[in-house]
Amino acid sequence: MYPTQETRVLHGTFADNIKGINIQNGKEGDDLALYLEDIHVYGETEAEDCPVGGSCKCVRKFGFMLGGSNQSKKDLHPTMASALPIFKTKSAASWGTVIDFNNLHFHNFAATTRCGAVQRIFEQSYAASDYTPLHYFKNVEFDNVADAAMSYLFDPPKNWAKISDCGEWPCTAPSNVVMDFEGTSYSGAMTPSYTAADFQIVSDFAGVSDSYDNCVYKDAWNAWRCANSYLGVLLAESLDGDTWDRSVQPILITNEETGYSNKLNSAMDHVWDGFYTGQLRLSRFPAQIHAQGDYTW
Fold first, then answer.
1. Between 110 and 27, whose confidence is greater?
2. Could you count the other beta carbons within 10 Å of the beta carbon of residue 82?
3. Quick one: CA dihedral 156, 160, 166, 169, positive or negative?
4. Per-residue pLDDT tens for 175-212?
5. pTM score
6. CA 259 to CA 254: how far, in whole Å?
7. What does the pLDDT read at residue 84?
8. How far, in Å, CA of 168 to CA of 40, rounded?
9. Which residues in 29-45 are b (16+ Cβ under 10 Å) and which e?
């Protein structure tokens, strides 16, 4: 979470990670950007997770953590325990972030590790409560990747539903994730069941994802795989002068024609001093906008 307008990672290789590669900006703004290019990510390797003289670990692993931007930075080298883990969000999500990932290669991801733990490529940060920007993936290669290993998008944790975090019900950012893939290729002995060059992955959210055309629910992903170029993320921002002192929720987005019905919470209070002070001024959600049909909110 470095205080940069733009973060780029080029020509990297990552292997056998418990929590995979993740990049974030630590700055507010309307023109932030995250770029990855020419990246290779490998699943479990032949190296055992066994320290000398100790017992082996058997832990859930994933190779790629979805990114984003946050209003506060962290030091490159943390100086206090409260800054750890380094990927954990501890400030409000930033408004305008373009995420453009190109020429990524994912190798050797089975659905489980040798010890039987779950393994996936794409997951979120467990602290990403506020907003996950639309992720564009171009020219991605899935090399020897099992269908179940593609992704897992978690539901908002129930323990977020408390007055010091999200209020009466959990923050809804995890329910509104959209990943868009273009120019995808596949190789290796294992391949996903769906091998289209262009597709999308969206969160499982009743009344939302099940209203989209050409989408199929994937239980192992806890998400939907879609062939729908209309999918995107629609952003809304409060311009009220007291927006930092007042929270507005729920916000309901509906489309009677398609059955789309999205109930949005405000973002998490990251300030640790009560529910209202520190509440984010943004509400963010994905929406499928057709040529016909009226949305009401």
1. 110
2. 8
3. positive
4. 999 999 999 999 999 999 999 999 999 999 999 999 99
5. 0.90
6. 7
7. 73
8. 42
9. eeebbbebbebbbbbbe
Q: In degrees, to the nearest 5, what angle opens at C-alpha 132 toward C-alphas 195 and 82?
A: 125
Is the pLDDT assigned to residue 274 strictly greater than 60? no
Residue found by looking up tokens 């000398």 in the block: 52
Burial 100-118 (b: 16+ CB within 10 A, else e): ebbbbbbbbbeeebeeeeb
Where do the domains of the chain lie? 6-232
pLDDT in tens, 244-270: 677 778 889 999 889 999 999 888 877
Residue 263 to residues 33, 67, 247, 268, 270: CA-CA distances in angstroms?
28, 23, 15, 16, 21
- Average pLDDT, rounded, for the chain: 86
Q: What pLDDT score was predicted for residue 243?
A: 72
E-strand stretches of the chain: 6-15, 19-21, 24-26, 32-42, 61-65, 68-70, 97-109, 119-123, 135-138, 141-145, 178-182, 185-187, 199-203, 215-218, 223-226, 231-237, 251-255, 260-264, 282-288, 295-296
34: closest CA among 18, 10, 12, 15? 10
The answer to whether the CB of 68 falls within 8 A of the CB of 7 is no
Say how far apart CA 85 and CA 63 lie, in whole Å. Answer: 17
